[in-house]
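Limitations
The structure tokens in this dataset are predictions for the assembled complex, not deposited experimental models. Users should treat interface geometry with appropriate caution, especially where small molecules or nucleic acid strands are included. An illustrative entry is reproduced here so readers can see what is and is not provided.
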Amino acid sequence: MRIDRVLAGVLAAMLPCLSPAQDTQKEIERYRQMLAEGNPADLWEARGEGLWKARRGPKNVSLEQCDLGLGAGIVKGAYARLPRYFPDTDRVQDVESRLATCRVTLQGFKQEEAMRNPFSAPGRHSDMEALASYVAAESKGMKLDAPIRHPKEIEAFRIGEQLFHRRAGPHDFACVSCHGETGKRIRLQELPKLSDPGDAQKIFTTWPAYRVSQGTVRTMQHRLYDCYWQMRHPQMDYTSEASVALMVYMAKFANGGTINAPGLKR
Amino acid sequence: MDAKRREVLKTGGGVLALAAAAGIIKPGEALAQEWNKAAFDSKSVADTVKALGGGASTPSSAIEIIAPDIAENGAVVPVAVESRLPRTQAIAILIEKNPNTLSAEFAIPAGTDPFVSTRVKMGETSNVYALVIADGKYFHAVKEIKVTIGGCGG
Amino acid sequence: MADPMRIRANMTGDKVEVKALMAHEMETGLRKDAKGNLVPPHFIRNVTVTHGGKTVLSAQWGTSVSRNPFLHFRFKGGRPGEKVTITWLDNKGDKRTDEAIIAGG
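Predicted assembly:
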């Protein structure tokens, strides 16, 4: 009946509805949850474990005696304590630079060879991505506790802090431009405020991650390389002092967060 | 050709499904398997249904498409299909706006739940069709999935 | 040979729930490489899952199944300790077979 239809129309107009932004965020969460059921990063983890145990290089030795910070061959929990200072190299190192060190010292590779092909391209898999996935997975569920006590660790933090805030390049961008405020986003990608433990503890600990848009696992080294590219800064060299310094800076705020890697991202 | 075999071939379930259901296929055999090229080349929902052996298909609320409304990245869109139609023989996922409509087709032998979950590529926001062949007849459900462009174009 | 799959088979009630991840590029043939040449299609066309000599699922896939494909389904008749075998075959004739042992509920 006509009057019923009019009433129904009025009621419908009065009903509160979810704001579009909230609705969208909910649906994206659902998308992410469905993907989490089967994270392709598992494939990298399996490959990484194989590479850890495989005899490689001129010395034909596996990586099973590699010291990732907790002692030779101890993988469980090592990722949760990285980056950190290593006396044998007298440097602060992250997981990837440490894996490269072990490839050189244990397996006999030259430095350039050990660091070759760090980032996968279609048809050209990166061993480092797989190894980093395996090592990270062995710290899943543990709390990040990267030490910032040794003078070189403290120095790395200070360098990282400088780099994080230093605007440069044709866009006059710094990391802080995108990651310095709460609640920001680019299109539908939320941007964590990396100096806020609330954000950092949840986000920093999900690297490395399978990146759907890249069709492969990407590590924190790649994330930094990619950010620097996006900011149109000079190239961030693989495992450079600058890259590790930025990680130490971020770890300061991410410490205490639970490691949930390898993760899954857009 | 016996009546049962003819019936299954007509429904597009495929020789493989019939052979499997009859327990004829042994593991390792039949690996030079059939692949319905015509179906995978079709460029519309109607053409795909035809290539899969059907005429028109009937909408059915007994088919559920489990998928998010929005996909953060069109390269990987999780889509699951659950059919409550009795004697479900096959489930196919069709993406209307993709260059080729048919994404995947699953033959469901007796004893297997009429449920499949996988991930598909979507070039843009599109209707996704779940086509179900049950008891020799064709049914479908449809859901629109929006595909977004994410953050720094990456 | 192609990289191994990750297969998990678990009892849920009286059914076996299978979740598998396959390592495969699933190239559509529409992508261009750095030199501007089309990368030829390279994708899984057939997937067969067997248990106890019986096919419990078979699938035909096209290029629009995502890279590193995921597959999840359920079947009756399996018990803990028994094997589930998955084989895929791609358009170049590459194939891969992996097994998983059904884990108890």
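Some entries come with short summary sentences. For this one: Chain C has a mean pLDDT of 95.
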